[in-house]
Amino acid sequence: MNPQTMLLTSFILFAISAVLGVSMVAIRESRKHNPPAWLTMFHGLPAAAGLTLLLYVTCAFGVPTLAVVALILFLIAAGGGATLNLVYQQRGQLLPRGLMYLHLLLAVLG
User: Fold this and answer.
1) pLDDT band at residue 89 under the 50/70/90 scheme
2) Nearest Cα to 106, choosing from 86, 80, 83?
3) Helix/strand/coil (H, E, C) string of the chain?
């Protein structure tokens, strides 16, 4: 597979994750409780796959600088997503809006 195809595949995986992420925000905002755990896993799986693919193509091939910036932003967003899941979701605490929207903003910028 060539680098352009891998970047496109990564983009598609992130797009799927974004749609699921927006639905999770809607659940958190409208129902005032956390989204179900199965939805957070279905959100994180394509995001992790896209991030892994983007990391691979960045390390293995020459990619544009913008792709490297996207990788850095997605890595930071992934840290925020892991925090939201492991610190708040798994403990049954309501997801903090500030961290949730920061995670969303970093992922969209990526």
Assistant:
1) confident
2) 80
3) CCHHHHHHHHHHHHHHHHHHHHHHHHHHHHHCCCCCHHHHHHHHHHHHHHHHHHHHHHHHCCCCHHHHHHHHHHHHHHHHHHHHHHHHHCCCCCCCHHHHHHHHHHHHHC
Phi, then psi, of 28 in degrees rounded to 5? -65, -40
| Residue 9, pLDDT above cutoff 90 | yes
The CA R_g of the chain, rounded to the nearest whole Å, is 14
Cα 65 from Cα 31, distance rounded (Å): 40
- Is residue 25 over pLDDT 90? yes
